[in-house]
Hints:
five-stranded mixed sheet, about 30% helix, binds N-oxalylglycine, EC 1.14.11.11, Oxoglu/Fe-dep_dioxygenase_dom, IPNS-like_FE2OG_OXY, hyoscyamine (6S)-dioxygenase activity
Amino acid sequence: MANLVSTWSKTAQTLPENYIFPADQRPGSFEIPLCQNIPVIDLSASHSKTVQEILHACQEFGFFQVINHGVSKDIIDDTMEVVKEFFNMPDEEKEIYYSIDPIKRCKVYTSGYDYANEDIHFWRDNLRHPCHPLDEWVHLWPEKPTNYRDVVGKYSLEVRKLSLRMLELIREGLGLEPGYFGEELTGDQLLSINHYPRCPNPSLTLGLPKHADADIMTVLFQGSVNGLQVFKDGQWLGVEPLPHAFVVNIGHQLQIISNGKLRSAEHRAVTNSREARTTIVSFISPCPDTIVEPAKSVIDTGVPRFRPFKFKDFFKFYEEKKRDPEAVLEFYKIKP
Ligand code: OGA
Ligand code: NI
């Protein structure tokens, strides 16, 4: 049975008990200061400046925002509109796509990966599907709203292009050989639409608990509603929504490839009682059988800090560890 928050919470006056997080994980007051110091990078600036700024942002924060990125505002606006429309459709239209089958790659579900066995649920619904190569997957995407495939298809291609462009800047900054981020390392692109309905008690629950992403690079559009927070130096910082800007963060794979030079920062999503929040997230990941390891040219001290693995094995372990970055990276660390 579908148990989407967007369905049953329409009439919920109070937060159900199984959505209440332990005291030390609760967001407390929603009024966390919006962070002015997460770097905002202008991609229309000079090449050498952007290489330097992106590398610095990935070392310090693992997070940055990009403006003047070349993705058309119309495509971004149309995509936000169509994904919101999806979640506003009548329940039975959304529920056609509902599945808890871990193998199924195109689906709608709620909370985390294992709803039945979770102690606490997250206040979010999610629609996700692969999008690269587009021709291979688009026939599995939602048929309604009727322009979903067309609009989201264009968005996925543009965001992929932007992601590869930013990876190229990082490649240069790290001094990796040309072509390093080829199809093997970037061949999987997943589009994930998070929908966080209005919440009766945002101070007790989370849309997404603290985690780091398993991929290479995540590109997120959060519209105009804030809720994304980054954990930096023991503190939560809110990421300010900027018009048509993308929030970019690097995942575990890039931390490992860079031999720990770049960081995959922990982050979470909080909810609010005023309005629903919808975010569009693109994850670029290696193909399942790709072997990932620290790049030879980055290991300047001659000591690799992580052991090689197949991406699919890493991902399985990541899910088992409930996305706890310390536990996941620790497992792949080479002990001195
Ligand atoms: C994610 C994520 C944050 C948000 O989907 O991995 O961190 O604000 N999303 O939706
Ligand atoms: Ni994330």
